[in-house]
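Customer escalation, tier 2.

The customer says the design service returned an amino acid string that "doesn't look like it belongs to this structure." They asked us to rerun it and document both sides in this ticket. The original structure tokens are below, unchanged.
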């Protein structure tokens, strides 16, 4: 039966999402967006907000990945991995031991702690878990976000439920434009229509109450409940089920889109992990104190998990006034100002940043 495989996939996905904020790589969060410092901890490295090209690259990669998954596997996200589906399935399983007339009420009660956990998990991707727990009822910001998210998530799950999938979810509406005749979908074998027993058990177990025998509909969430229901009726009679997965995964379209997705993914990892250990931005302040003396702002980013010592110098024809040696903690940024005085006629200043003994970065900036 497909249900047990779906439950394994759902529980694994839930464990990954809830557990990821606790995972640490090289002493830092594996995946967390640090709002105060505007940086993303990304599996052993840090992506800063000024490295916007990486964010654009990542967005483009995930868009292509969505196209590939949907074109190839249809609604597999909706039925197997969507957090809404996972929460509704888990709460439904926990309420099943109770009498039928109480199950709906029990499910709503079960959704209360599950919604709270989801709300906490969302915060954990911005504030470390232990820090969140300590500040949960002492920080107005964290408490406010937790309560608002809890209320919204619970209301959506308990009172809207599957209707969200069939009426509001934009991804559900987008899927129709990405499907083709070979996309993997759940379908009824119309060539054996006359042999169907007409028990309608597939309709009774469907969470969105559609009749798969009448053809594929946008409301289908690909939960495979109808397949299991059909198997339960046909297997004792020694016949194959009338409902099952139909489609062709390996075909020119999926190979091409899959290859593009792979190239984009490799490119994203390459550009992320081949950045220099130190990133530097130097800018001249618009307002200068006196003629012949310019003020510059230096921003030095440490993209590694180790502390870095950076020495700052400039080219001949100028005198550097200010801090020349700075120590930058792991995954941190140093911002400071220096003064440059001209001793010649040159109109360009070359800042030289030396670190790790012999590694050098140069930044050329104008001088007025």
């Amino acid at each position: 039966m497909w249900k047990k495989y779906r439950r394994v996939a759902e529980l694994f996905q839930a464990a990954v999402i809830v557990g990821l904020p606790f995972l640490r790589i090289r002493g830092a969060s594996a995946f967390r967006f640090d709002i105060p410092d505007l940086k993303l901890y990304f599996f052993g490295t840090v992506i800063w907000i000024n490295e916007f090209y990486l964010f654009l690259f990542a967005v483009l990669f995930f868009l292509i990945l969505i196209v590939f998954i949907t074109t190839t596997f249809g609604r597999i996200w909706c039925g197997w991995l969507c957090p809404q589906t996972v929460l509704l399935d888990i709460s439904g399983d926990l309420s099943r031991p109770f009498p039928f007339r109480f199950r709906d009420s029990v499910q709503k009660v079960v959704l209360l702690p599950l919604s709270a956990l989801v709300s906490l998990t969302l915060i954990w991707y911005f504030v470390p878990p232990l820090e969140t727990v300590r500040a949960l009822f002492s920080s107005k910001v964290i408490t406010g976000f937790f309560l608002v998210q809890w209320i919204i998530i619970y209301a959506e799950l308990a009172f809207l439920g599957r209707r969200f999938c069939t009426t509001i979810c934009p991804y559900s509406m987008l899927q129709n434009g990405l499907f083709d005749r070979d996309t993997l979908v759940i379908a009824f074998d119309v060539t054996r229509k006359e042999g169907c027993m007409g028990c309608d058990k597939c309709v009774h177990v469907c969470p969105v109450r559609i009749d798969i025998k009448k053809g594929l509909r946008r409301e289908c969430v690909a939960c495979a409940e109808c397949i299991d229901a059909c198997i339960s009726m046909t297997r004792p009679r020694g016949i194959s089920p009338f409902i099952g997965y139909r489609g062709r995964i390996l075909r020119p379209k999926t190979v091409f889109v899959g290859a593009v997705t792979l190239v984009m993914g490799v490119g994203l990892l390459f550009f992320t992990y081949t950045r220099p250990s130190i990133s530097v931005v130097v800018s001249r302040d618009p307002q200068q104190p006196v003629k012949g003396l310019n003020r510059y702002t230096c921003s030095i980013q440490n993209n590694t998990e180790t502390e870095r010592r950076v020495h700052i110098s400039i080219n001949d024809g100028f005198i550097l006034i200010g801090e020349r040696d700075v120590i930058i903690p792991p995954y941190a940024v140093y911002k400071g100002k220096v003064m440059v005085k001209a001793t010649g006629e040159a109109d360009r200043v070359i800042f030289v940043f030396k670190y790790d003994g012999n590694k050098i970065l140069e930044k050329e900036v104008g001088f007025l």
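Tier 2 assessment: The sequence is consistent with the input. The mean pLDDT is 90. The two ends are 76 Å apart (CA to CA). Sent an explanation to the customer and offered a walkthrough call.
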